[in-house]
């Protein structure tokens, strides 16, 4: 698996600059209306290398790119080499099967310039008789909108059961449609033999920072108490390792944890599902947020690791901790968040996933507002419109001792610095950088 390393290092997610995208612009994931829905659809199949060992390879790519400039060609080649690893992160031991539950997951690749691409994957067993191997349909897009792409993958899967040939006109129609603005829809006409022309409506959620999130995935697996321990570790930019067997569980839960930090952005290594050949990522001394399949647990525990928080998503428990997670957040604010999480968790409240997203997000945004909401009044504006953040008076302005103690650590984080850098640039007071 060693040759996978260099390819995957292109994908090794170090989005320190991602919050701003190129040269401080807002990232393309945020200002996306009117863009292409996707860059590529690739099909990744397993090719036999030796008895019982298979290697994931791209068996189809749409559209094929002609006339690329040299730099673009290199970038494309690197992207196309990394994709198979992330579509089959579980290693090379496979056997043909007659049944395989299809699963949906996603991964994130970071380009040299810090911009991000997302791979939305559906792993399924092609229709047929007898034993066969699963394949992955992967849509590569710059746009973060998980619900929308899951729906597109449903359509792809439906067509795959008829014939590969029915997939391409649908994807071509999608490529020619503009990506809708938040809250808006786009309708795509699609013809299927036997059933005629269908109209497929794709709608973007109103709240664009929740497009990539299913908080329900976290609440189903972890108690509100544990979610707060994880949040506390993430806020101080520590090392977090999540374990589960299913790729969909890992990718949903990790996207959800990263989204709890809104309006801040996780600015370090971020790999929702770590391919087997990259497991030594857990030896990094720098902060990371990674997902690892349960089958690799022994291997991970043997690695020489720095302190990290290890969360078992199957059993909803913490396997390893630093030990101070309980004390990180100011008690009063922690209890407020707990109260609202418990309220949404009680069974007599049946909420749609959008409602859960809004309620959970609100609880954590409220935490940040209570703690750092006064930041804009501590930016001193110079004549040329440049702002300078006054850190000491900002921390001193907080009355509660425990909040002040926490704040002194939080202002040292990369995510806070990135947030303030953005705020110093823009005179118009706006909430957050998301």
From TrEMBL:
Q: Where are the annotated segments for Disordered?
A: 1-24
Matching entries from Gene3D superfamilies are given as: 3.30.450.200, 3.40.50.11500
Kindly state which keywords UniProt assigns to this record, in alphabetical order. Guanine-nucleotide releasing factor
Q: What is the lineage of its organism?
A: Eukaryota, Metazoa, Chordata, Craniata, Vertebrata
What molecular function terms (GO) are annotated for this protein?
A: guanyl-nucleotide exchange factor activity
Query: What is the recorded name of this protein?
Result: DEN2D protein
Q: Which GO terms describe its cellular component?
A: cytosol; nucleoplasm
- What superkingdom does the record give? Eukaryota
Q: Which organism is it from?
A: Campylorhamphus procurvoides
């Amino acid at each position: 698996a060693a040759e996978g390393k260099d390819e995957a290092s292109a994908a090794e997610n170090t989005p320190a600059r991602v919050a701003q995208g190129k040269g401080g612009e807002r990232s393309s994931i945020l200002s996306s209306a009117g863009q292409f829905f996707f860059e590529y659809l690739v099909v990744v199949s397993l090719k036999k290398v030796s008895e019982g060992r298979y290697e994931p390879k791209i068996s189809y790519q749409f559209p094929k790119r002609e006339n690329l400039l040299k730099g673009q060609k290199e970038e494309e080649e690197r992207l196309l080499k990394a994709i198979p690893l992330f579509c089959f992160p579980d290693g090379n031991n496979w056997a043909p099967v007659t049944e395989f539950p299809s699963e949906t997951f996603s991964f994130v690749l970071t380009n040299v310039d810090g911009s991000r691409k997302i791979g939305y994957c559906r792993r399924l067993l092609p229709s047929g008789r007898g034993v066969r191997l699963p394949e992955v349909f992967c849509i590569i897009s710059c746009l973060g909108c998980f619900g929308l792409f899951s729906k597109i993958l449903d359509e792809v899967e439906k067509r795959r059961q008829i014939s590969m040939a029915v997939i391409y006109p649908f994807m071509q129609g999608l490529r020619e449609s503009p990506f809708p603005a938040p809250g808006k829809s786009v309708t795509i006409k699609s013809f299927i033999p036997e059933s005629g022309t269908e109209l497929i409506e794709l709608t973007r959620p109103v709240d664009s920072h929740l497009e990539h999130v299913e908080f329900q995935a976290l609440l189903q697996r972890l108690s509100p108490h544990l979610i707060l321990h994880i949040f506390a570790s993430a806020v101080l930019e520590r090392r977090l390792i999540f374990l589960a067997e299913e790729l969909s569980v890992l990718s949903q839960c990790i996207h959800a944890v990263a989204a709890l930090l809104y309006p801040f952005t996780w600015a370090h290594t971020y790999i929702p599902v770590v391919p087997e050949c990259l497991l030594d990522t857990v030896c990094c001394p720098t902060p990371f947020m990674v997902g690892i399949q349960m089958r690799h647990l022994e291997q991970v525990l043997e690695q020489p690791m720095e302190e990290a928080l290890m969360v078992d998503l199957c059993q909803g428990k913490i396997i390893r901790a630093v030990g101070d997670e309980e004390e990180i957040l100011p008690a009063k604010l922690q209890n407020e968040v707990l109260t609202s999480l418990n309220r949404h968790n009680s069974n007599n409240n049946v909420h749609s996933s959008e409602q859960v997203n809004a309620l959970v997000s609100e609880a954590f945004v409220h935490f940040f507002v209570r703690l750092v909401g006064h930041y804009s009044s501590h930016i001193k504006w110079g004549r040329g419109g440049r702002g300078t953040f006054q850190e000491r008076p900002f921390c001193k302005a907080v009355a509660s001792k425990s909040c002040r103690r926490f704040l002194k650590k939080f202002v040292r984080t990369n995510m806070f610095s990135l947030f303030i850098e953005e705020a110093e640039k823009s005179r118009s007071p706006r909430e957050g950088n998301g």
